[in-house]
Amino acid sequence: MLPHARTDPSGAGPRRAPGGTSRDASPRAAVGGRGSTLEDVSEARPGDTIERLADEIVGCRRCGRPVELRARVARERRAAFRDQEYWGRPVPGFGDPGARLVLVGLAPAAHGANRTGRIFTGDRSGDWLYRALHRGGFASQPTSRDRDDGLRLSDAYVTAAVRCAPPGNRPLPAEQAACRPYLEQELALLGHATVLVALGALAYRALAAVEGLRPRPRFGHGVEVGLGGGRTLICCYHPSQQNTFTGRLTEAMLDAVIERSRALIARAP
Question: What's the whole-model pTM score?
Fold first, then answer.
């Protein structure tokens, strides 16, 4: 466990393949494709890849509320971004397919990833996260502005429990369940993952469900949970403005999670 771990039930080896590429407007890079059923994505199948899964994610239209919201926000746009074309679709994961560090957030921000098409990109939560990953040696640069900014991740992969911007930033239980098979297959395809970081309680619950944690330890910043296969799940407060503006999450606390992740990776077989 990290020093000064905090408990809160409602807290919002060899080198692998080269880092993930910045995503362009094509579906393969930021991705577009077809819809799918829960059975289609509940487990990895022969020949599946992260790119193919991204195609399925971007084509998803399962949940009425998020589908309506993402389209309306993309159509109306915030005044500061009125000259930009919004992504307005589900957002796939981003990073190194051979990553040993996987970070899971809540969902795309309506005017962040729902605008840019890349997870944790174009909002202050992403500013915090990618600065920390850059300081920790996992990101090529400390900023994440848009899909074409040149950002690359090395040995790290960033994704979310929910793939569409939810109304009020609060996905319903049914919406979380509908997205969960995507996370399950994503983790199956990220076969080198050694450390999973849950950014917030919702991401932790999603990972606990995928991993079958029974009983599920209480969420708290810095809490560590051993998983099968020598993997570790680390809980971290989400880098939302609600947490960072109030000092509940500091850069030092986030850096400690990244440093702990690197230490666990270094000790893994």
Answer: 0.83
